[in-house]
Amino acid sequence: MASIKFKNVIKSFDDGKVTVIPDLSFEIKDKEFVVLVGPSGCGKSTTLRMIAGLEDVSGGELYIDDKKVNNIAPKDRDIAMVFQSYALYPHMSVYKNMAFALKLRKMPKKEIDEKVRWAASILNIEPYLDRRPGALSGGQRQRVALGRAMVRNPKVFLLDEPLSNLDAKLRTEMRSQITMLHKRLQTTFVYVTHDQTEAMTMADRIAVMDKGVIRQYDTPQKLYSEPADMFVAGFIGSPRMNFIDCTVIRKGKIFYVEFSGEMMRIPSAKAKNLASYENRRVILGIRPEHITEHTGGEIAEENCVITAKAEIAEMTGGEVNVYFDVGSRRCIARIRTDRKIASGETVRLLFDCNTAHFFDKDTSKAIGTV
Amino acid sequence: MHKSLKKYFPVFILPVVAAFAIAFAVPFLVGIYLSFTHFRTVDSSEWVGLANYIRVFTQDETFLNSLWLTVKFTAVSIISVNVIAFSIALLLTKGLKGTDFFRTVFFMPNLIGGIVLGHIWSLIINGILGIFGVDITYNPSYGFWGLVVLMNWQMIGYMMIIYIAGLQNIPAHIHEAAAIDGASSSRELFGITIPMVMPSITICTFLTLTNSFKLFDQNLALNGKSADTSLLALDIYKTFYDHTGLRLAEWHGMGQAKAVIFFLLAAAIAFVQLRVTSRKEIKH
Amino acid sequence: MKSKSRKNNATVYAVLFLLTALFISPVFIVLMNSFKGNFFISDEPFSLPVGEKFAGFDNFIKGFTQSDFLSAFVNSLLITVISVAGIVLLTSMAAWYIVRVGNRFTKLLYYLFTFSMIVPFQMVMYTVTYLAFELNLNSISGIVFIYLGFGSGLSVFMFSGFIKSIPTEIEEAAVIDGCDPIRTFFMIVFPILRPTAITVAILNAMWVWNDYLLPYLVLGSGEKRTLPVAVQMALTGGYGNKDMGALMAMLVLAIVPIIVFYLFCQKYIIKGVVAGAVKG
Fold it and tell me: Which value does ipTM take for this structure?
């Protein structure tokens, strides 16, 4: 049982001169896999390190299991941590690395041995127990680091960008292994990364952070389909969402959105939120994978087709990434097609207003969501 | 963690700081103060302003002689030690068999302490001069060149090791490229090898420079009995300890003033070294 | 082409063996004379110890007993071992504190330590001797304390350089595993520092073992004297009349431990000395 609660937590450095986290409140539930994601310098690692106790909390309260831990030493918080650089002890064998924390806690030798072997067998590192970390590959070291955390049987697992030093193939492999581990260990995982793919594939819930503030804290599905603001919308999804300036127009009872000389009807569900934006400029957001190629046939009222020049066309297997301009905005469409699209070719692209997002131009918040 | 580490000040750093203060910081500061005084011992000092410094340059017979001798000695040592050490390093990087043996032998004298070294050479030099019925005190130039030979014997192996490391760092393909271009061996030496080991040359030059400049033990053991072959460090020592009687306080004051000048010169060398090496680092 | 390079090699070997002879001869001459009778040392220093000149081990027995060589050797050994152990342990702790705390105070300390490296001993020669007597540091344990203070500059400098390259994450992992700062240092940091510790130990051992002036001024030439002081006293006639044979034997006895030590730890010594040169 371990939940984590931030209550108006502040973190500043240099005696309050630099504030990296102005006011943070959120809760991580027991056994949940939460990913903190955001660009570098957003405060995600600092947040994790405060849970670990490696950084002091400058203000507010931090609870683990309803117990205030502001002034509790890392070793008494019952947490384990996996670091980006693995941080294995270079002068100890793999076995000793994993046994170290247990030895410090004066656990009987036999029990230590059982735990180490149990973790090693799950992680497939049994053959390397006598080796030094220097003699292992990156992936093996990563598994040892996980093993060192596992043997502790902690209430909370903290992982700080654990996969960013691995190559792409290993990263995918380890991703599923960590997910498997979470299911198996049934404990709380807090995972920091700057990679939205990792966040989307692994998390129960994701906290998207920017400049020390959580912009949105929700399930991966919700973040994708209902981003709270332009930052989250742009951060989640790859290639990133296109943002296009447009104007809301009313004709009778029906609202339209106009951009680049084209109009499309706003579906009634979205229209009621946009009523107050009549004749104002808003930002239209549309994901590259929601733009399709128009190959003929009737165009529905809620759709529009624009003709654009494919400045660049990148083949990525079954899909083509087409870069084109709307006004002065560079946009991307990700088109499923068997046809080869050449750079410089003119394409007809279909926008569907049902998949579109609208953002306030001043606050960058999504229109309609609270 | 850093916060909790800070509290461990007494465990981690206090012993060293205390020893540093007593063995270095306090004596250093008191030393500067005493150079402006006449003192029999530290607690009986009498302020005289710049008098000691003026006397060092105007009335003292030995200081300027020692300074000049030190400069000469340092210059000769830098050239001879480095030229010979570099040449041996070239021979030992040709991939010949037995290289390790030669390296071991040439480095060995470096470990023998200055006092023992000085007496070994004193025996040899006096043995040779004995054939002509004189000894090392007979002519100051005997003492000077004896010290140069000793310095070479001691330092060559050390510098050789650094040069070998530098030479081995030159990528083989550069030599191959030179061979393909048809460079003569002297062209290769001056056009490629020497420029490539310039960092080692800088290190060795400064090492020889500071070691020669601060030389004391060897000088004491080899030339302790002849007055005119004292380098700066030995001259300072003699100013302090070879005098007794009523004017002792003046000698002490002057010795300390010489020591401060000696320190300033050493600091100047270190400063130049820092400038030269940091400029090199930027280039890389 | 091949025969030419073979001829070249022969010349190189000739030069190298000539140099070897030159490098070894001083030690060899002393060794040779240590087996000769008194009279023949000053009169025929370059002749071999054969026939009537051969004195067996007489000189060594005299050298050992007359100058009480053994007590000087033991003093030197004690001072060197304790000083080096103290310097390695305490300066590595200090360097870790300085680097990891990293506030204005520790930065100032770091600059002071670095600064002390360039100051020649003569600058503090008189004052440190005075202070040593005032504070009753004119003993074996006292001089160890002075060596700690004097050796701290280079040692802190070298340890700091290495510690800066150790990722802090390793130490944070130790904290999470349950180490306090003292355990973190001794169980994690110090073992990682091993290569630098060996270098620092060798550099300081060579310095302390061979140092003459400080022990001469602080411990004097009496019963607390070290080996270099005993050698200097003996060879400049500090103990009355000069027995050349005994003196030669003393020189040999002073050199032998160093050469034995060198042959056993050659790899570490050369590496350490070069590392010290490049950094300092």
Answer: 0.89
